Amino acid sequence: MYQYRILNSAFMHIYDAKGDEEVNAGEISHYHKEYEIYYMVDGEAEFRIEGFVFHPVSDSLLIIPANSFHQWDYPTGRIHHRITIHFLPELLNKVERDFFLNLFTAPLHFLDITQYKLNFYIQSIVECEKMEEPLQKLAIKIRTLALLSQLSYLHRNNTVKPIVLDARIRKVLVYINDHLIDPLTMVDLSNKFLITKSHLHYLFRKTVGMPIMKYINIKRLGLARQEILDGTMVGEAAYRAGFNDYSTFFRAYKSFYGSAPSELLASGFKNSIIKKTVKKTL
């Protein structure tokens, strides 16, 4: 059995889910444009996030950066309960983004979060579901900032080191993310890391769950979107993110985000309309 409820408000959606492994076992690698805070209330799982392996257990928390490819498996016969918070950077103003989104440059794993009161901050956000507008919108923003403040305070000394799936692909991933604005081709990466193109393609897809050039494209879109949010003109943002052809950038951006890049500023950061659903699968 699998059940969840969802709250949508002001660039954020929250899932409170309970179920067993039969619905989500072997979830294929996926990504989303939101930043994610994953709280394992009860249960255990294996998470693969861009070449890293994490093992969240009861009362542990994962921070997953936006546009990060990840997948999970739950053990057979074990019921799990999780709360996940997904939010877009538009939830925060520029000063808040510049400070708090540094938390999301790489996945982080916290254990025994109750001792740090992180469960209190998460539950306080979930409780906003009971509020009416405009109080709900205000409370979500304030309570999310409180959670991010506590995570920022704790993250240097209270995170668990992940397992590296493939050291070679980790080096490739680090290089790609450090050189997104530079020309990147399979031939160049193959030569640099002394791996044949076919084997690099195989290893990257096996480790990350996505073809390498698609990975690069999505990371560049995220970089361009951040530039636009920071006030850079759309064409310049595309160029700074490594797109040399604007029409290619425009099509890719609209396909991924569902709207033209200019709408990010033209809309005045209006709230996204997200259909509210309640799903029960037996």
Task: Tell me briefly what this model is.
With 282 residues, the protein is α+β, with helices and mostly antiparallel strands. It has helices spanning 21-24, 94-100, 118-126, 135-154, 167-178, 186-193, 197-208, 212-229, 234-240, 246-257, 263-266, and strands at 2-8, 12-19, 35-42, 46-49, 52-54, 60-64, 70-73, 80-87, 108-110, 163-164, 279-281. The strands form two sheets. A seven-stranded antiparallel β-sheet has the order 9-6-3-8-2-1-11.
Describe the structure.
The protein is an alpha+beta fold and 282 residues long. The protein has two domains: 2-162, Regulatory protein AraC (Jelly Rolls, Sandwich), CATH 2.60.120.280; 166-266, Arc Repressor Mutant, subunit A (Orthogonal Bundle). Helices cover 40% and strands 20% of the residues. It has helices at residues 21-24, 94-100, 118-126, 135-154, 167-178, 186-193, 197-208, 212-229, 234-240, 246-257, 263-266; strands spanning 2-8, 12-19, 35-42, 46-49, 52-54, 60-64, 70-73, 80-87, 108-110, 163-164, 279-281. The strands form two sheets. Strands 9-6-3-8-2-1-11 form a seven-stranded antiparallel sheet. A hairpin with a 3-residue loop joins strand 1 and strand 2. Helix 3 packs antiparallel against helix 4 and helix 8 packs across helix 9. The N and C termini lie close together (5 Å). Residues 267-282 have low confidence and may be disordered.
